[in-house]
Write a structure and sequence with these properties.
338 residues; alpha/beta; Rossmann fold; 2 domains; seven-stranded mixed beta sheet; 16 strands
Length: 338
């Protein structure tokens, strides 16, 4: 479905059903998905709340989002006591870049931080087409908080660094963040300040993934945990990132940086790649016994709701959502630890 096709009463019913079956916190510091269109009956729409800002995601091909539907969303959210003071409309397929980033249609400012558990994340809701903190990855951030104590962590394609923040919240010994765009690190630096984390536990490397990983290999760096959450597709002079067709190629680039007994956290959010195809890509590389498949990390149910059977472009099973997260456990031939 490429446009928002719903009457006002129909949309109100869908939103109400979603909100009735969610357990999202009603506080002004939380971040939560309130309506997930793919799994709740209207694929061209999603609604989030980041602290006191309601974010409406329009994934339709329409040039204009109907005002009556905006009013229905706002009215229904108020009816269910969702606390917000501003509303941001983000239109993914608008020809205008600023509409991708978002138009403030109510209020004067957007939230600039949220709390997840006891950890604070600095956010910039208009930084990009997304909201700078991916809510479908909350389960992974919780896993990192539970499993990073005294670990060294490499976060590739770090973007705004929320995984690194979660790892430090979990007691990581050191976190190295790398991304092509150094400007994204500013939010991570603000997250460090919000949580009172010591700056010396963090290192930033701005640069192309392929060049940075090669440089770290030359330095003989080893990490206990490596997070690999690449964009769907990107291309530089050094290489190509393609989650649909060549996702595992990145694992092979990063494997030499993992200490014996360490783990790669591998994330693939390609909507059109089924969970079965993703697993088949991984299983092709298991013959050498130096890489084994570990546990899957689920997307929180509160993100996609419980109202109906989800309809996705490709079946994510055995994962519970198209954001597919799995641990790959590494054994080194040389047995090197960090």
């Amino acid at each position: 479905m490429n446009k928002v096709q719903a009457s006002t009463p129909a949309l109100e019913r869908l939103l109400a059903l979603s909100l009735q079956q969610r357990d999202n916190p009603l506080d002004l510091q939380a971040a939560c998905r309130l309506f997930n269109g793919f799994s709740e009956g209207l694929p061209a729409l999603a609604v989030d709340r980041y602290a006191d800002t309601l974010v409406i995601h329009d994934f339709s091909k329409n040039a204009v989002f109907p005002n009556d539907l905006i009013e229905t969303i706002i009215t229904t959210m108020r009816k269910f006591k969702q606390p917000f003071h501003s509303v941001l409309l983000k239109q993914r397929f608008s020809p205008e870049l600023e509409r991708h980033r978002g138009t403030l249609i109510m209020g004067e400012t957007c939230a600039d931080q949220v709390r997840e558990g006891n950890t604070f994340h600095a956010i910039d809701l208009r930084l990009n087409r997304d909201c700078s903190l991916y809510l479908d990855s909350a389960g992974l951030r919780q896993w990192l908080m539970d499993h990073s104590a005294e670990k060294t962590v490499l976060n590739t394609f770090a973007y705004t660094g929320s995984y690194g923040t979660a790892a430090l919240a979990g007691g990581a010994k050191q976190v190295v963040q790398t991304d092509l765009n150094a400007n994204f690190f500013q939010l991570f630096e603000r997250s460090l300040e919000l949580n009172g984390f010591p700056a010396e536990k963090s290192r930033f490397i701005a640069g192309d993934f392929f060049r940075v990983s090669s440089a770290l290999r030359r330095e003989r760096c080893l990490f206990d945990l490596v997070i690999l959450d690449p964009p769907f597709f990107s291309k530089t002079n050094s290489g190509v990132v393609d989650q649909l067709a060549r996702g595992f190629a990145l694992v092979n680039k990063i494997r030499p940086l993992v200490a014996d007994g360490g783990k790669i956290v591998f994330v693939n959010n390609a909507l059109f790649l089924s969970g079965r195809e993703f697993m088949q890509q991984i299983e092709q590389f298991l013959a050498d016994d130096y890489l084994t498949i570990g546990e899957r990390i689920d997307v929180p149910e509160s993100f996609f709701g419980r109202t109906a059977a989800a309809v996705y472009p490709a079946d994510p099973a055995p994962f519970n959502h198209p954001t597919k997260i799995i641990l790959l456990e590494i054994t080194r031939k040389d047995g090197r630890k960090r």
